[in-house]
Specification:
By secondary structure, the chain is of the alpha/beta class. The protein has 13 helices and twelve strands.
Length: 416
């Protein structure tokens, strides 16, 4: 089992001067700590205009800082908004390759499309076409990172001439590709295009088993036709995360934040929004106005339902159940709502000290067995891939200079 940490950069109101800056710098401190403790991944989302819920609109900047401050932890776009209206594919390919160089080959690349009207409407993206646009862009970004030169492309979504996209990434053929998934249908899509599934839904181990069976069933079938130049067959599940030796204290520290996360995900899609006047956290608190005893009782029940909140023993059982279900990575959502920086750091340290080691000891054998089992299916999938054809040298178009060339006499050519 691999372990990751995940950032939306949530900042519930009211906001005070310096709160945003503090949020980002504390997140960097957490990533540095996670790197030192042996966590495998630091994932960063990309969202736009989603006040309180996500202030992560420039993940490439945050991940670059993470890469510069760390040594071994992988830095993942979980996800990059790849539709051309958000980020032109050539600019994404350039940024990924540069980040891969800066990090010395530690980048993972998740593709996503966005779901809210605040984002889609602002960038004029048709909701019914966003999935196809994201997959198309992801495929072309992979081609851009690999081909020398990229032959060019023309579609209804975007067009781009023949150019050589530089730099090229350290990882060959390109960083591992993933896709954001929220239900069984998107799990099927991720498997069908040969990318890892970043499951951003909080499901129990039984449902995780269903998702793993669906995902790996398609990877092993003729339905898998990769969009990248390699298959990344991996399933990652997001989990709540708050640890303490006292279960009630773990609940007090973490449960409200994770309830807010779930509330906000639904509210941003289903409720109207007034830019600059968000009441997301206030509305959330009003929606959960219960007595202290009722809240604690509900929180304790959440822990017993394998929620990732509780004691080291609780989370050990939680992770073991996910591993037995076929999940390859658990991504901890530790920064949610008003969860405190010092509590997040304490949870990271406690998990590393008392739980992580036993799972780490099993990683090499488990991944070797998996690679051997999947090798023939991945080879068959790559054989089905329709490849973009490279241009012969005499087919590469010459880009004419924009100004006429002039002959300038040099001093040494003077007859004097």
């Amino acid at each position: 089992m691999r372990f990751g940490i995940f950032y939306e950069h949530q900042l519930p109101k009211p906001w005070n001067e310096g709160d945003e800056a503090r949020l980002f710098h504390q997140a960097l401190e957490q990533v540095v700590l996670a790197d030192r403790l042996g966590y495998d991944y630091a994932w960063e989302v990309e969202h736009h205009f989603l006040e309180e819920y996500s202030h992560s609109s420039a993940p490439e900047v945050f991940l670059s800082a993470c890469a510069a401050l760390t040594k071994t932890i992988r830095v993942g776009h979980g996800i990059r908004q790849v539709i051309p209206n958000y980020n032109h594919p050539a600019r994404t390919a350039e940024g990924l390759a540069t980040l891969d160089i800066i990090s010395k080959g530690r980048v993972d690349f998740g593709i996503g499309e966005g779901a809210t009207r605040l984002e889609l409407g602002a960038f004029h993206i048709p909701a019914k076409e966003k999935r196809a646009m994201a997959i198309e862009a992801g495929r072309e970004i992979a081609n851009m990172m690999v081909m020398d030169p990229y032959p060019g492309y023309e579609s209804a979504s975007f067009s781009f001439p023949c150019r050589n996209i530089v730099p090229k990434p350290v990882q060959k053929p390109h960083p591992p590709m993933w896709m954001a998934c929220t239900n069984r249908d998107t799990i099927k899509v991720a498997a069908s295009i040969g990318v890892g599934a970043l499951a951003f839904s909080f499901v129990d181990p039984e449902e995780a088993q269903n998702w793993a069976d669906i995902y790996y069933g398609i990877i092993k079938s003729d339905q898998c036709v990769p969009i990248g130049h390699a298959v990344n067959a991996n399933l990652a599940m997001v989990s709540n995360f708050s640890l303490h030796h006292d279960r009630d204290e773990a609940i007090r520290r973490g449960q409200e934040g994770f309830e807010f996360f779930g509330y906000a995900v639904n509210a941003l899609v289903a409720h109207d929004a007034t830019p600059g006047r968000s009441r997301l956290f206030a509305d959330f608190q009003a929606s959960r106005a219960r007595s202290d005893e009722e809240i604690m009782s509900a929180r304790r029940g959440a822990v017993r339902n394998a929620n990732g909140i509780g004691t080291p023993d609780d989370i050990r059982d939680h992770i073991r159940a996910f591993q037995d279900a076929g999940v390859d990575q658990v991504i901890f959502l530790q920064q949610a709502g008003r969860n405190k920086h010092e509590h997040i750091c304490e949870s990271l340290e406690l998990f590393a000290a008392e739980v992580m080691g036993e799972f780490k000891a099993e990683v090499a054998d488990r991944e070797a067995r998996k690679a051997a089992e999947l090798a023939p299916f991945i080879a068959a999938a790559m054989a089905r891939k329709p490849w973009m054809q490279p241009l012969a040298d005499d087919e590469i178009p010459v880009v004419k200079a924009s100004v006429a060339r002039a002959i300038v006499a040099s001093p040494t050519s003077s007859p004097h």
